[in-house]
Design a protein that fits this description.
111 residues; alpha/beta; Cathepsin D, subunit A, domain 1; two-stranded parallel ribbon; 2 helices; 13% helix; 32% strand; globular
Length: 111
């Protein structure tokens, strides 16, 4: 599974198919793609994932259609990573995997 750290994305998002058993709450967000198209927000959820063996959580918007799990600037700022260099983010990106659902335990790497 791919995970992308995207400091240009204000809200962390994940595809609903990747977290089928997530407990959803009504979202307070209206989200839009870069081309200003409205995104179909199913709800919000808290998901767990692992970075270098350390467990983390993120509050994410669950979308009907999105290609990747995106950790946005909300998560980066919450973790004090908003000033992290692109090289450091690349290393971090390559060590993220989701463990919130047992079937989502794959390692994240991008080429």
């Amino acid at each position: 599974m791919r995970c992308l750290l995207d400091s240009g994305c204000e809200r962390s998002v994940i595809n609903a198919d990747l977290v089928p058993n997530a407990k959803l709450t009504t979202s307070q967000y209206s989200l839009y793609a870069a081309n200003k198209a409205s995104l179909d927000v199913v709800g919000d959820s808290v998901i767990s994932f692992v970075i270098d063996g350390q467990h983390f959580e993120a509050v994410v918007s669950v979308l009907a259609k999105v290609d990747e799990f995106l950790l946005g600037s909300d998560w980066l700022e919450n973790k004090g990573l908003s000033g992290t260099s692109p090289t450091e983010l690349c290393v971090l990106r390559c060590t993220v995997g989701i463990d919130g659902d047992e079937h989502l335990s794959s390692h994240c790497c991008s080429s």
